[in-house]
Amino acid sequence: MRYPDSHDDRGQATAFLIVMAAALLLLVAFVFDVGGALSERNRTLQLAQEAARAGAQQIDLAAYRADGTVALDPAAAVSAANDFLAEAGIHGTATVDGDVITVTAQSVYTFRLLPLGPRTASGTASATPVTEPTTP
């Protein structure tokens, strides 16, 4: 015999389990995709730093041999940085301002589990030419 104010609890554990499983799967997808996006951003920044270093190695040898002046060869520096980025399979730009080369690298990360579409990851780094070891 049932009382009119009693509640039937059958099926509530199943509904709770389905909701919690979906939330857990969404959390795993979020962690996986956001971790991948951050990893791609870190990779892009690292490649920008390496390209800037490659560009900073292109000094004006005539000025250096003449009087020891360390100055960038702007055309060679931009070319070396762009070549480095092209070898790495990444897009970017390099500019020279005085003795500083600045490289901005960009790549596209496509989320695999979340329906967020592709996002652009970018990193910017600068470097200057150095001919002698530096001490910390």
The total of helices stands at: 3
Percent range for β-strand residues:
15-25%
Strand tally, please? 3
Helix content range of the residues, please? Answer: 40-55%
Radius of gyration: 27 Å
In N-to-C order, the SSE pattern is HHHEEE
Spatial strand sequence of the major β-sheet? 1-2-3
Tell me about this structure.
The structure is a single chain. With 136 residues, the protein is α+β, with helices and mostly antiparallel strands. It has one domain. The protein contains three helices and three strands. It has a three-stranded antiparallel sheet. A hairpin with a 7-residue loop joins strand 2 and strand 3. Helix 1 runs antiparallel to helix 3. The longest helix has 45 residues.
Q: SSE layout and pairings?
A:
Elements: H1 12-56, H2 61-67, H3 74-88, E1 91-97, E2 100-110, E3 118-127
Antiparallel strand pairs: 1-2, 2-3
Helix pairs in contact: 1-3
